[in-house]
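Example 9 (inverse folding). The structure is encoded as follows.
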């Protein structure tokens, strides 16, 4: 790990799109930022001459049993932690997954958990330790009802159920006297508080929290979504090196493939706009085919249909359908099968847009891509990246959480990939800006 930055940041996330949307702000601030599917990929990516400022590790634990998720999260921290490297535990802004068990596993190793799930730019705020989505209680949203039935969406209750001793700070205290706030955080040691939950209504609230907690000598780590992360990204004191110019990726030859594994109403609207404005062809794969995999009698026919578009370099939207047998727990299996269906034709893909962390991870794993360099952001939570290691096919890759983003998100991502500079354009621009050599 000697090539890595001595003052840097480790982000641990439970799915791939979450890792990317949390880390993308650091890339935008000029920090070399990689998203990795496993620790070994991070080590390989850090072996080159360019130091890594931020590692965002996807533990792929959202669907696991809480005890297994906690153990895998602790192992990721042990493997990737280093002197001078601070920790950010990325959690879903709508509290999906095993986040409380994972925070409980990290707390004895990393100190006080500063917990702030809010992401005001996407309509998620916290008030009295409860998450609101555009002002409405999280429990009333379709996303929560789909996966959590009648469980309460209370941050403090979930952490206490995981065994942590909690306290909370309301938004008035956060916005009040800075010394009072610092002393309140320092007092948690005497009070044996293990997790401090902080309400936030605006991005300015998160900015204040980031500035104050980053300056404390208290042993602590941050727990939040992409909201708090982007405020930390604006603080140069977190890193040893000055920022660099953001990386640029050249346009790759081939079709743009859009994979949608999410069944959320948000994704439905985004797909509709993409079809309407971009005229992208669409295939909806029946779940029964994905459940059976290559044993299904229609498997090769669907593989051929997908190949017909990609070989001809025709942009294509491929979605997982829904039927009466749908079970949220089968998401990873369906995503892996979808990736296997597409993988034989991936060499014809010039750009990939993947909605849903399980979908993105499955496609990258199926094609041997272990880590990504983050490049840019299409909109909040929609990240553009490229494979860290050179490959025969090195498409630009966009990741987005399923129930996330504006109706414009997929179309905006498609437009972004279409407008990437070609190698010829880049060479011509570079030549035009090189001053003539003085031979006298």
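The amino acid assigned to each position is listed next.
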């Amino acid at each position: 790990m000697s090539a890595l930055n001595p003052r840097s940041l480790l982000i641990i996330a439970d799915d791939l799109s979450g890792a990317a949307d949390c880390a993308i702000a650091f890339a935008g601030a000029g920090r070399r930022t990689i998203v990795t599917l496993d620790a070994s990929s991070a080590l390989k990516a850090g072996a080159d001459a360019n130091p890594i400022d931020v590692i965002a590790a996807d533990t792929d634990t959202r669907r696991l049993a809480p005890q297994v998720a906690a153990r895998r999260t602790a192992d990721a921290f042990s493997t990737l932690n280093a002197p001078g490297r601070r920790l950010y535990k990325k959690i879903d802004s709508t509290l999906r997954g095993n986040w409380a068990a994972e925070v409980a596993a990290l707390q004895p190793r990393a100190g006080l958990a500063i917990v702030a799930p809010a992401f005001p730019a996407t309509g998620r705020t916290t008030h009295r330790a409860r998450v609101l989505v555009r002002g409405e209680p999280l429990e009333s949203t379709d996303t929560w009802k789909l996966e959590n039935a009648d469980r309460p969406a209370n941050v403090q209750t979930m952490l206490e159920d995981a065994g942590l001793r909690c306290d909370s700070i309301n938004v008035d205290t956060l916005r009040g006297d800075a010394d009072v706030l610092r002393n309140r955080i320092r007092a948690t040691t005497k009070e044996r508080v293990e997790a401090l939950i902080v309400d936030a209504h605006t991005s300015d609230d998160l900015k204040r929290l980031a500035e104050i907690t980053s300056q404390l000598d208290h042993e602590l780590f941050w727990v939040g979504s992409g909201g708090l992360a982007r405020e930390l990204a604006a603080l140069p004191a977190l890193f040893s090196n000055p920022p660099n110019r953001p990386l640029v990726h050249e346009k790759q030859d081939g079709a743009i493939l859009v994979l949608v594994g999410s069944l959320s109403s948000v994704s439905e609207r985004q797909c509709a706009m993409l079809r309407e404005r971009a005229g992208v062809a669409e295939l909806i794969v029946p779940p029964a085919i994905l459940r059976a995999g290559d044993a299904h009698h229609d498997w090769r026919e669907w593989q051929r249909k997908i190949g017909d578009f990609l070989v001809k370099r025709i942009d294509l939207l491929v979605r997982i359908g829904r039927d009466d047998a749908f079970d949220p727990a089968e998401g990873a299996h369906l995503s892996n099968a979808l990736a296997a269906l597409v993988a034989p034709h991936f060499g014809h893909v010039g750009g990939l847009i993947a909605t849903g962390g399980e979908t993105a991870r499955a496609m990258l794993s199926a094609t041997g891509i272990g880590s990504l360099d983050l490049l840019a952001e299409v909109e909040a939570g929609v990240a553009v990246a490229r494979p860290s290691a050179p490959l025969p096919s090195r498409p630009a890759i966009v990741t987005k959480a399923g129930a996330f983003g504006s109706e414009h998100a997929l179309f905006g991502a498609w437009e972004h990939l279409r407008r990437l500079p070609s190698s010829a354009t880049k060479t011509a621009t570079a030549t035009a800006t090189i001053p003539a050599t003085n031979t006298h």
